[in-house]
């Protein structure tokens, strides 16, 4: 008996369009050239993975490395390597976990906070130009929906990853 497919119902046209739009946004925002331009404008020499980690720490610091990995949807070893590099560069530091003195949490240093502030300022300037014709209420709605979508993605990420791929039919 083969396992049932993870999704037996076809996706709605709305979900298909959302996926298409997100693919376009992801492509535009993750191009190496766009990242290099943003880092040049901000005056910060960091790769994309380091920036993602710094952003997460800035939004919710201080956290244990394992929690950072969960929030970013990456392996803990990836976060450990990034934290080591960022610590050597002076962007983050390790502090004792107040709930468990054996554990450590990661927080931004003043240099790290300045870097993330410059990155965000540069990114917001470009976004402000692109969205200049949008009404404030439209922007509030979009921001709220994006945050809700990301929270739902994170809440369901493990469920989706745990689904077994469809078994291919035997040839014959």
Descriptive account of the structure:
By secondary structure, this protein is mostly helical. It has a domain at 18-130: Winged helix-like DNA-binding domain superfamily/Winged helix DNA-binding domain (Arc Repressor Mutant, subunit A). Helix content is 65%, strand content 9%. The protein contains 7 helices and 2 strands; from the N terminus they run H-H-H-H-H-E-E-H-H. A two-stranded antiparallel ribbon has the order 1-2. Strand 1 and strand 2 (100-108) form a beta hairpin. Helix 2 packs across helix 6, helix 3 (48-60) packs across helix 6 and helix 4 (65-72) crosses helix 5 (76-88). The protein is globular. The model is unreliable at 167-172 (pLDDT under 50). InterPro entries: ArsR-like_HTH, HTH_MarR-typ, MarR/SlyA-like, WH-like_DNA-bd_sf, WH_DNA-bd_sf. Pfam families: MarR. Residues 15-151 form the HTH marR-type domain. This is MarR family transcriptional regulator.
